[in-house]
TrEMBL record:
The lineage of its organism: Bacteria, Pseudomonadati, Bacteroidota, Flavobacteriia, Flavobacteriales. It comes from Christiangramia antarctica. This is Transcriptional regulator.
């Protein structure tokens, strides 16, 4: 996707669209930045707080109103989520200066200009597989292949789902396999430390104490 042609075309469309204001455009640019971070995936997850911060919006109703307006005007496809642990999804319609509108695979026409090559699509699919697991079962299979119990896989999935699949508060996970392996290493270290403390005899006593001897 040629993002320079896309931005030139979308700003040209903004200038002719009297139904939009600066707040709508600010939200769109925040979505574009998130799209960029996700390597221009066809469909990607967004997080409300993150988009509102980038767009400099402090009101939840304003945020949702802008998303719905951009959706209605066919700048994006907004797929809201009613799950508090799972973000909403967005599909960014692709625009090009040489065409009226270029959208995703679900809408095709002779006027579309699709710039990604087959090799790039394959590369993006591989990246998507590592970025976030598609389901809890995918995580459980990964842990099983690493000879880890199902319970540990469930703990890993529930933990990162509850914090929006990020580390240190705001850094989004880009390779969940690597994150899972780090989780396993930390779990091994914890088990080793626990074993040491359980086996440590701080009182230096013996199992066969002669209670006839004085203390």
């Amino acid at each position: 996707m040629n993002y320079i042609k896309h931005l030139n075309a979308v700003f040209k469309r903004f200038s002719k669209d009297s139904s939009l204001n600066a707040t709508h455009i600010s939200v769109y640019m925040a979505l574009f930045q998130s799209w960029n971070i996700h390597r221009f995936k066809e469909l990607f997850y967004i997080h409300r707080d993150e988009i509102m911060e980038m767009a400099k919006i402090g009101s939840n109703p304003t945020y949702h109103r802008c998303l719905r307006k951009l959706h209605d005007q066919k700048y994006i496809q907004y797929l809201p989520s009613h799950n508090p642990y799972k973000g909403s999804r967005v599909r960014m319609f692709i625009f090009d200066a040489s065409s009226k509108q270029v959208v995703g695979k679900h809408e095709t026409s002779s006027e579309q200009v699709l710039t990604p090559s087959i090799n790039l699509n394959k590369q993006n699919k591989n990246l998507n597989k590592l970025e976030l697991p598609q389901s809890e079962n995918e995580v459980l299979i990964f842990f099983k292949n690493k000879n880890w119990p199902e319970l540990e896989g469930r703990k890993f999935y529930n933990h990162y789902t509850s914090i929006g699949w990020s580390v240190r508060g705001n850094i989004k996970i880009t390779n969940w396999h690597a994150t899972a392996e780090s989780w396993m290493l930390k779990a091994n270290d914890f088990r080793s430390q626990s074993s040491v403390f359980q086996n440590r005899d701080n009182l230096k006593t013996t199992k066969y104490k002669n209670y006839g001897e004085p203390l």
